[in-house]
Structure formats: C-alpha cells, structure tokens
Write a structure and sequence with these properties.
Oligomer: single chain
Strand order of the largest sheet: 1-2-4-3-5-6-9-10
Pfam families: Abhydrolase_1
Organism: Georgenia daeguensis
Protein name: AB hydrolase-1 domain-containing protein
Number of domains: 1
Domain AB hydrolase-1: 33-274
Radius of gyration: 18 Å
CATH topology: Rossmann fold
Distance between the termini: 28 Å
Keywords: Hydrolase
Amino acid sequence: MSTHTYGTVDVPVDGGTLRAGVWEPVDPAPGAPTVLAVHGITATHLAWTYLVDALPGVRVVAPDLRGRGRSNALPGPFGMARHADDLAAVLRHLGTGPVVVVGHSMGAFASAVLAHRHGGLVESLVLVDGGLPLEVPAGADPDELMRAVLGPAAARLAMTFRDHEAYRDFWRRHPAFAGQVSERLGEYFDYDLEPADGAWRPSSRLEAVTGDQRELVTGESLLPALEALQTPTLFLRAPRGLLDGEPLYTAEHVARWAARLPVATAEVPDVNHYTIVMGPAGAAAVADRVRAARAEVSPS
C-alpha cells in the first residue's frame, strides 16, 4: 500500500512556471511536517521517490530545477542564487516553512544558498554528497576540473535515444547502476526524456548545466552562505563517486571543511553518488538523518 499520494504543481517564478512534485502522506504524522528535496545537476524531482517511501507521514515537495525536467523552458541566468530564489518561491506558493531541506549534489549547493538568502524558510539542512566546495588542486582551471567531473553527464545531454527502453539500457550499463535498474528507476529515466526530432533526449538543458557547473568550484554564492551559516546542518558523504569509483569528496576534504564550519558530518556506507538517494538503502539512511534533523530542532 502506498504511503503517499502524488501530484504536481506549477509555481510562478521569474520567467515562467517551475514544476514541482508534491507527495502528500496518506497517514500524516503529527504536525504534518514538510521536507523540501532538491535534486542534482542533471536530475529531476523523481530522483526522490525512494526517499519519499522512507518518510511515511511526511509531506515531500521536490521541484524540477530551472533548466531541467518540466522546468526546462525557463530562461537563464542560472546559478545557485537563482535556484535558491526559485526554491523560496515554491515554499511560499505552498504556504509552508520553515522546513527541513535535503539537497543532493548540486541541489545541496542551492539548498545552502537558500538558507542564506531565505533563512526564515529553512529549519535545517541535510547536504547529501554536495554543498561543500569541491577540492580544487593548486593551479587547476575550474572549467577543466568541472569538465573532468561532469564530462560523462554532459555528454549524455547531447545524445538522443530511439525510445524509452534504449534510455533505460543506457543506464543499465552505467557503472553507478549496474544490476540495479528497478522499475522505480525506470520511471525516473522515462520522465527524464522529451521528444527530439523523432527520437528522445534528456530534458536537462546543456545551457543550464554549464551555467551552473562553474559555481560548484568557484563557490560564488556558496562561500558567503557557508561563512554566514547558522542553520543546523549535516553533510552526508558517499564513499564512491559518479562512476562508482573515486568519491566526489574524500573523507579528508570533508574533515577539513567540518573543522571550519558548524557542520556535522557522516558517511553512508556502500553507496555511490547516485545510489545515496536513488537506491533503497541509501534513501533509508538519508531518511533517518532527516527525521533526526527535524527532531533536534523541533522536539515534540
């Protein structure tokens, strides 16, 4: 039996409307808490369905960020401040807040900036393998670094697929999901596609990705947000990375930032950068931390 009912809402934002998924609990918990879930750089709101299942009684709101999913017609400029303002518009439109905000990958960067720009809407932050500055080797060019990190994801956005099954096959071969593409994930992959001249292509716009990626290294909006951070914050690290190999964040890099900031840290074992949210075990671990975050700031 499903724990939630699902629907979508289109929220007025600068330049048009932003699509958001809303999962209402069938059996609401006392106080009907809301969690705002913010996806990564080439994802959509359906990346969060495993987390929704792990949070019975909790309302979950998750947008398609500007330039992605059914929000991909929204114009630039992009960047974390722009996403943060869109997220604030979603919460105000739904009349909810302050809430626990869970951000994955780039969504964690946008979530931290949301807490800085619209602090009254954010109760606490759970940053999932994102939201701390990436490690930049001395003398490295930020654009070259991001091309190295996000190159495979950006290359996918330029591809077309004959049908939805071909796109699912692409992900079945992906190192992060080898042997793990369930029907649930298949629905996420299906949603990610849009028609393209008799074929199908991923819905994230390359313009949006390239407009956002540099800020993941330079921290243009992130660093001021972290320097002023007052919101209770937890960073969750995936020990494996985007291709199920080297992690996006080393434990040592996270420890260095944790020593500088009021941020607690933890590792979710045996997950990669994707499966920390798009897999049942990873999502359950994240959900445990979400419940703990809410309990710490809203004891009942």
